[in-house]
Design a protein that fits this description.
This protein is mainly alpha-helical. About 65% of the residues lie in helices and about 10% in strands. It has helices at about 5-15, 20-60, and strands spanning about 65-70, 70-75. It is elongated and about 70 Å long.
Length: about 80
């Protein structure tokens, strides 16, 4: 349902927030979301780098790395039985 601009503005003014204030709040929320997403991406990169480093060290030391693929546990080295 679409409302006219005047009705929309009047509703927001009654609620105590002007259209300008509402836009500023939305922009602030967008900036906070963008900062959070950048932080999440940075953490993801850092964690992935640490995992790769540990996997390489395990391979160098002959320690198998285990993974779950489609609900099955698999190793990157042959069975040691």
């Amino acid at each position: 349902m679409r409302t006219s601009c005047a009705c929309y503005q009047r509703t927001n003014i009654i609620a105590g927030m002007s259209v300008v204030e509402e836009r500023a709040t939305a922009e602030s929320a967008s900036e906070e979301l963008a900062k959070h997403l950048l932080w999440v991406l940075e953490m993801d990169r850092t964690i992935n780098l640490a995992v790769r480093k540990a996997q390489e060290e395990n391979r160098r030391l002959g320690i198998p790395n285990y993974y779950e693929i489609n609900g099955r546990i698999v190793s990157d080295q042959p069975d040691r039985s």
